[in-house]
Amino acid sequence: MIRVVHLNGFVQDFDHPVSVSEVTGTERPPKQFLCTPAQLLSDCSQLGLQPDTILQAGHIYFLLPYSTLQSDVSHVSLASIARKLTAKAKSTKPSSSTQPASTPLWPSPDSGLVSCGAQRLSRMRPWKPVLDTIREKSFNRRSESDLQEANLVQNV
Q: Where are the stretches annotated Disordered (predicted)?
C-alpha cells in the first residue's frame, strides 16, 4: 500500500501503482509537490519527486503546497512537519475513504495563512518596513522640505 499524507492530516491510501502526477494533478504551474520524509529534511535544492515517478508500495509520501518552502521556513519547522505527518501516517488505519480528516493538523493552504505549522503561525510578527525620509524637489517652486532647510540655515 502507498500512503500519501496531506498537510492538513488527510491520509490517502493507494493499493495500486500510482504516479506523482496522478496524485498532484495536472495543474500548471503546480501548487503542490510530493516528497518523501527524507527529501523534506534534506538540504537539496531540488525538492519533490518528478511527475513521471511511480510511487513505491510500503512508503510514506507527503503532499505539500509550495508555500511550505518559503525562504523564512526553518529546518526545525520542516522537521516538525515531517515528524507530525509521519506520526499521522503511522497512526491512521488503512481505508479507502476519500474524506478529509475531521481535525486537520494545520489550516488549509487556501485559508490565506502560511502553512508552516500551527506553532509557526502563532509566532509570526507583522512585517514592518524600514523607511527613510524622502526629500522632494520641485523644478518650478520650492518644496516644503526646501523651505524648512532654508529656515534652518537662516536661524543658525
A: 87-113
